[in-house]
């Protein structure tokens, strides 16, 4: 039986969620297709500033003018009242034909505002296109433009506090951060939200109830950041299962960022205290989540925070004392500290041999799990 080589040091690295009071954040802001970049390297930008702009081609409409006019395709051109390239309006006449010595007139109208792009002499088919749709990309965070992507966008850099979550819904928002929960263990209920929270990023504690999320959307709360959310409530909220999570395009009035996982899970105290200490500052929040290749984390970014001292820094990486979060059953969402990193391989119930680590969950509870089942919480 051929022996498998022992994992190298690099093989044991576990990328984790970042929860830190100070980090340099670089955000690439790119158009979906080539357009105009509006900023230069060195420009200071606010989160709401437009940094690039383009236009998406409008929707195409087809109309067979030969059939509508009752003529041959090569007889359509003389009957056009708008020439190819000309502007059209919804309900406006684009072609007409007279018959029986001018006694009867057949008119063809445009189904949309826009442009008559072309008319085929072979088929008599007209192509009409709606007006282009303007697309603007905003900076998303307060910062400095450090790179130009020619014809596509920019890279914005900022020093900020950053909290990455496990799951989120809906897209980017920028709003002041307010604290509603009195602690990381408090469930966020609908009764705790009022008109004063409209347009704000609300910091909850543990799970946010479905009723609270619906209330937030009614009030037009910008975002909710909480420890947990029930998985079945996601389907209730959206009307469908998210499956392998690829989110961020949901048309919700309120963005959701879940920092710990599904269920009744309290927010990690360090995460709660970090965000609570930033109350009143403007936060950039995005619920976009992708857990397949090219991982995208939901996040809360608060620019303008101070640098941490050497005494406050954690060395990072997978080492004894590092804070970690379990990301697979049966300990999903549990948080603790690495208490040991055994060198030898351990045999799992599946009879595979893997590297493991021991995690102190507190209260004397120490578990042994595969290293792939945890992620480092960077602080």
Distance between the termini: 44 Å
Query: What is the CATH class designation of the largest domain?
Result: Alpha Beta
**Overall pLDDT level:** 88
CATH architecture of the largest domain: 3-Layer(bba) Sandwich
Pairing-aware structural class of the strands and helices?
mainly beta
Helical fraction: under 10%
List the quaternary state of the chains. Answer: single chain
**Major sheet description:** 11 strands, mixed
Envelope shape = elongated
Number of helical regions: 4
Strand content: 35-45%
- Radius of gyration, Cα only, in angstroms? 28 Å
* Overall number of strands: 29
In short:
The chain has 379 residues and is mostly beta strands. The chain has four helices and 29 strands. The longest helix is centred in the middle third of the chain and has 10 residues, at 210-219.
Supply database-style keywords.
4 helices, five-stranded antiparallel β-sheet, eleven-stranded mixed β-sheet, 3 domains, 8% helix, OB fold (Dihydrolipoamide Acetyltransferase, E2P), SH3 type barrels, mainly beta, 29 strands, Glucose Oxidase, domain 1, 379 residues
